[in-house]
């Protein structure tokens, strides 16, 4: 009996130790009338919640590389005119990265976090792909397609291919929807990965058919949101598109999410079918144990798991 107890204590301690390697940053709607969003952080058990931006405008976190948090902000510019910023999970060391105006979009990085791929805009041309040098803020425009929209790009391992939410004809937005595509950076090779079920007519044109993609490093698959059968859930697909499956299910809708760098933890926002608001949940992907981390009347959404610098 004593040996069993020792093993259980070891497993519990190991799980807590693993969680302590991370924190969660997430987005909170502070004031709907003023359109004020702030970024909060908390421990993996939901403790030590705190506002780490605390500005009157819109800040929204989309990505983290190791202990660096990347977010968009309209501070010191026009309302909802977004630029890329960096900070740590405590809200320290804030700095503006680039003068490229961004779309409201997820992003990814390669080359040890030194290059970021984003969806941005130049003049009237919107939702195009750019590479940003994180150190000096310079950027390179990758696409110049007046017909398509490209959002939520992430790199696949190796940094030569991306997965993104792609719509080939933005003028047909009510009949042609975003799907996940895999591309190289020269756009020479394009492969459609997802195909929304034609039999499902419950999803409106403005709701997620597929996107935004996230990468699970441990299990080597892409996860994404899709609203099927009148409910948002998280789905998965392999990079070759040969295997697809549903990850989350149940009465609650599941939406924006992220994986820990070791692929073990899934943080996500969920909402009851008949209630307003969102809360953050954490899932141990190995055991499937789910823990609710937030419980308030505020909209708490789009968690991102960040490594804690030791």
CA-to-CA gap between the ends?
A: 36 Å
Q: Please mark out the parts with pLDDT under 50 across 5 or more consecutive residues, or reply none.
A: 4-14
Shape: globular
Residues in helix, %:
under 10%
Please count the helical segments. Answer: 1
Largest sheet: 4 strands, antiparallel
Total domains, how many? 1
3D structure, described in words:
- The protein has 310 residues and is mainly beta.
- It has 1 helix and 24 strands.
- The protein has one helix at 2-19; strands at residues 22-31, 36-43, 50-51, 59-65, 68-73, 83-87, 95-96, 108-110, 115-122, 125-133, 139-141, 149-155, 161-167, 179-184, 190-192, 211-216, 221-228, 231-237, 244-246, 253-259, 265-271, 279-284, 290-292, 300-307.
- Strand 8 (108-110) and strand 9 form a beta hairpin.
- The protein is globular and about 45 Å long.
Features of the shown structure:
310 residues, Neuraminidase, mainly beta, four-stranded antiparallel sheet
Write the layout of secondary structure elements.
Layout (H helix, E strand, L loop, with lengths): L1 H18 L2 E10 L4 E8 L6 E2 L7 E7 L2 E6 L9 E5 L7 E2 L11 E3 L4 E8 L2 E9 L5 E3 L7 E7 L5 E7 L11 E6 L5 E3 L18 E6 L4 E8 L2 E7 L6 E3 L6 E7 L5 E7 L7 E6 L5 E3 L7 E8 L3
Antiparallel strand pairs: 1-2, 1-24, 2-3, 4-5, 5-6, 6-7, 8-9, 9-10, 10-11, 12-13, 13-14, 14-15, 16-17, 17-18, 18-19, 20-21, 21-22, 22-23
